[in-house]
Design goal:
The chain is α/β, with parallel strands linked by helices and about 400 residues long. The protein is built from 12 helices and 12 strands.
């Protein structure tokens, strides 16, 4: 870690010390895990160990875990599989929500070009799926429902077990993007009874470029990347064995630290939340007040523009995000914040603070000491801001 204050853990996490040392060790192994010689078998053994470790984190069987390059590939693999499955089942409807990650939204758009229909469910002011709207959509007999476990911007957690059960009652398959949830809250896929779930290593203090897709036994799947026989023919390409091994190590540590991580980040989040409310007037906390990731705090600051806030914090040595980091560079307001009912001005004036295992009380207190002055200065320069309105 460096001298800067990093509060953008939902965008990505640093390699933990334990994973970094383990990864360095595995990088010296260069053998192809598909080769039959001793070095190849050793690399393959590392992969299968990692498969078991990732499976344990989310409580599934190891042979239900498919390694990918990350959450986006995992999500695209599931949605792409629905093209062929639609023809087999005679169903062409996919249900998702208005607040999904861009990779789900973009993959859904592509399905339409293949003749499928997509319904984007609305959410309430907290980002929770509206049950009544969901039930109406299920009456149309969908092929697939894809709803994220926890939102990457506002942190709202959905009741995936309930949503999956309702989807199955309607004869649909169910997928959840659990990229932001795994390692932060308990993810029990066996109990939730979903058909697919997506994960990413770099969100749990492991290397980038590796992820996983859970595929429940018997659930249909089509390869997104075709070629060799790797991953039972479902994902071609030479294994990134060192990164996969490091994914396993990161998953093992995440499971061991899950309870302490939740308690510690929740305490720091509440410290930050309460401090902001006490020191800065006219702010709005976005997301559910209780059903929220322990590390995530999204706040709107009327009268201050998000990019300006980010740049001022950058000068103070603090890293944050304006909504989804995956959408940085876009002048459009966050689709998530618009979906929960914020107007464009509030959406543009929102900052996501996402804390992690290396966040300290001193860092939170530093932010609380200097950040109120930033908002005060920006509001004084704003002709649109009127206190109390």
């Amino acid at each position: 870690m460096n001298d800067r204050i990093y509060l953008d853990y939902n965008a990505t996490t640093p390699l933990s010390d334990e994973v970094l040392e383990f990864y360095k060790e595995k990088l010296s192994s260069y053998a192809n895990a598909s080769s039959l010689h001793e070095d190849g078998r050793s690399a393959r053994k590392d992969i299968e160990k990692a498969r078991a470790q990732v499976a344990a984190l989310v409580n599934v069987n190891p042979d239900e875990i498919l390694f990918t390059s990350g959450g986006s590939e995992s999500n695209n693999t599931v949605l792409n599989s629905m093209i062929a499955e639609s023809e087999k089942r005679g169903r062409n409807l996919v249900i998702t929500t208005q607040i999904e990650h861009p990779c789900i939204l973009e993959a859904s758009k592509r399905l339409v070009s293949f003749g499928l229909e997509v319904i984007y469910l609305p959410v309430d002011e907290y980002g929770c799926v509206k049950t009544e709207e969901y039930m109406k959509a299920l009456e149309k007999k969908p092929l697939l429902v894809s709803i994220m476990t926890a939102n990457n911007e506002i942190g709202t957690i959905q009741d995936i077990k309930k949503l999956a059960a309702l989807a199955h009652d309607a004869g649909a398959l169910f997928h959840t993007d659990a990229v932001q949830a795994a390692g932060k809250i308990k993810v029990d896929l066996a109990d939730w009874n979903v058909d697919y779930a997506s994960f990413s290593c770099h969100k749990i203090y492991g290397p980038k470029g590796v992820g996983a897709l859970y595929i429940k036994h018997g659930s249909p799947i089509e390869p997104l990347i075709r070629g060799g026989h790797q991953e039972k023919g479902l994902r071609a390409g030479t294994y990134n064995a060192p990164a996969i091994a490091a994914f396993g190590k990161a998953a093992e540590l995440a499971l061991e630290e899950l309870e302490s991580y939740g308690e510690r980040t929740r305490e720091l989040r509440n410290r930050l939340r309460n401090g902001l409310l006490a020191s800065i007037p006219d702010i709005k906390i976005n997301g559910h007040p209780a059903k929220v990731l322990p590390n995530t705090l999204d706040v709107s600051f009327p009268g201050a523009e998000g990019e300006s806030i980010l740049l001022h914090l950058d000068l103070l040595g603090v890293d944050v995000s304006t909504g989804s980091a995956c959408a940085s560079g876009s002048l459009e307001p966050s689709h998530v914040l618009l979906a929960i009912g914020l107007g464009p001005e509030l959406a543009h004036g929102s900052i996501r603070f996402s804390l992690g295992k290396y966040t300290t009380e001193d860092e939170v207190d530093y932010l609380l000491k200097y950040f109120p002055g930033v908002i005060e200065r920006l509001r004084k320069m704003s002709s649109a801001y009127c206190a109390g309105k």
